[in-house]
Amino acid sequence: MAMMIQPLVQLSDDQLKSRSIFDCGSPTLNSYLLQTAGQHEKRNVARTFCGLQNETIIAYYSLANTEVDVGAVRPEVVKRYRMPMHRLPAVRLCRLAVSTLYHRRGIGGQLLVDAMLRVVAVSNASGCVGLVVDALNSEAARYYEGFGFRPAPNLPLVLFMPLPEIEALLSTENRRRSYRLARRDASGPRPRGVRDDRPRAALPPHVPDRPRRAAQFRRAAQLDGERLPVRY
Ligand SMILES: CC(C)(COP(=O)(O)OP(=O)(O)OC[C@H]1O[C@@H](n2cnc3c(N)ncnc32)[C@H](O)[C@@H]1OP(=O)(O)O)[C@@H](O)C(=O)NCCC(=O)NCCS
């Protein structure tokens, strides 16, 4: 069964009822979904997107606009992307939570990919230098670092990914995914439970090497295999 990602405001009453049983292990994040996310929607403070399975919310994330202080971005990132001013527009991933029943199944990664797609859409309509995340604690910060986010020099729980890196990750994955699908179509389905000894074709030259640090992002963006596929 595919996971669907939908804006909170588009959920039916029955789907919304499942907020009361959502448990990601953090009472703060559970109560945000139950009590605050709807208020923030009405007041245009933040937008929340929910992952649903069988009409039940199994994960969510929230986005808002923000400003990044160049002082809170690592100097090498400022230099590399020639960030011009002190305060720059960005999108903030305020919250990300997955039901404990679904931890470690790539759902968090899939929501991050979804959030990044929305950041790119925002950047096409308005200035946006990247995605800032607020980590709940140092364990969560490590989680984001695994996807390629970098902590701010003096704020280890605030992490940032510049837009060009988001776009590069998304386009690399899209090209790899279409290449994988094309290759699968050409050679037929892989035999199940049997070692697949067919020679692997070399990747086409236009597909760049994957950034090494973003290992988890890569796995999340692979919507085949054991991960729950996402339907948009
Ligand atoms: C953090 C959280 C969102 C991760 O979601 P998830 O769907 O379980 O994560 P994924 O399956 O996408 O994880 C991909 C990889 O990240 C790593 N990872 C997962 N949870 C992690 C954590 N809490 N800390 C560090 N690394 C973590 C794992 O290495 C995992 O790879 P694996 O499949 O080889 O184990 C989820 O555990 C959660 O909701 N926690 C409670 C709330 C929270 O801490 N939110 C985050 C910050 S606001």
Verbal overview:
With 232 residues, the chain is of the alpha+beta class. The protein has a single domain, classed as Gcn5-related N-acetyltransferase (GNAT) (Aminopeptidase), CATH 3.40.630. It has helices at 13-17, 27-42, 75-80, 107-125, 138-146, 163-187, 215-221, and strands at 3-7, 47-53, 56-69, 87-98, 130-134, 150-152, 155-162, 230-231. The chain has an eight-stranded mixed β-sheet, with helices on both faces. A hairpin with a 2-residue loop joins β6 and β7. α4 (107-125) packs across α7. The radius of gyration is 19 Å and the shape is globular.
Give a nutshell description of this structure.
This protein is α+β, with helices and mostly antiparallel strands and 232 residues long. Helix content is 38%, strand content 24%.
The CATH architecture term is 3-Layer(aba) Sandwich
Q: Which bin fits the share of residues in helices?
A: 25-40%
Give the beta-strand count: 8
**Uncertain residue ranges:** 184-188, 198-213, 222-232
The class by helix and strand makeup works out as alpha+beta
Query: How are the strands of the biggest sheet laid out side by side?
Result: 6-7-5-4-3-2-1-8
CATH class value: Alpha Beta
The percent range for strand residues is 15-25%
* Major sheet attributes: 8 strands, mixed
Number of domains: 1
What's the shape?
globular
> How do the helices and strands follow one another from N- to C-terminus?
EHHEEHEHEHEEHHE
So how many helices? 7
Which ligands appear in the coordinates? Answer: coenzyme A
Compute the CA-based radius of gyration: 19 Å
- At the fourth CATH level, what is the homologous superfamily? Gcn5-related N-acetyltransferase (GNAT)
Mean pLDDT: 81
